[in-house]
Amino acid sequence: MIQAKDLQAGELSALLHFYADAGVGWLLEDAPIDRIQEFEAQQAARREAKQSQPAPPQRQDRQASARAVDAARPLNPPPVAMPNVDAVAAAQLAADSARSLAELKAAIETFDSCNLKNGARSTVFASGDPASRIMVIGPMPSADDDREGLPFSGRTGQLLDRMLGAIGLSRETVLLTNIIPWRPPGNRMPSPAETAICKPFIDRQIALAEPEHLLLLGNFPARFFFGESGTIHGLRGGWREVAVGGRSVAALATLHPQELLAAPATKGLAWRDLLMFSQALSRT
Fold it and tell me: Cα(218)–Cα(213) distance, rounded to whole angstroms?
């Protein structure tokens, strides 16, 4: 087995990035550790330290200690986390202030009130042709998206390219985006609070791009726009009118490319949805 000490710097960096993308929070030790014995030793040390503590200081000594603590406290403490309701309001203000997709991209990149941004490498914004009036919307960035800084990268993006190509489209002739602009740690689903904070940004994207057709990929986007809790198998296969960005837009949900990679037998369902999407485009 190759040990970390035998790896070159580049190889070690790639290995650590692989662990981070896989959601690994810590590494195992080379030798087993008896955590129970370790905990008992820590408890015994605490009891011994408590018994050997001197008597409490007099009031004057306590005041001197308090002054010393105040003197050591930094003049500019780190900002306090913003409550969710204030973060949503801040996101709404930032989104409403954007008068173009370029301004919206800059607003999202400078927005610091969503904790998802702290754990992500990239802010993944829309790419493609905003004038196409066609938006393809996924749930959130994948590890490949986060690494490349572009939506639908890696194997998922390659399969999406083939899906779009089958109906005469490409990533250059549609607008690709995600509801959440930052990858959640370990590819977990975003929390309701995180989703609420990100909602003004995707709403504003749609308002600025003014699409006529939305292709929603996967459970999360279908539930987000349809306001229902079913699975993609129950929500796909039919057009819905969704109200977003102050206008009504025709939306069709289908399976996400990642779901097709995991279950290739479902590609037939996605193909029927793509044909339905293509027929609607040809009529307009």
Answer: 16
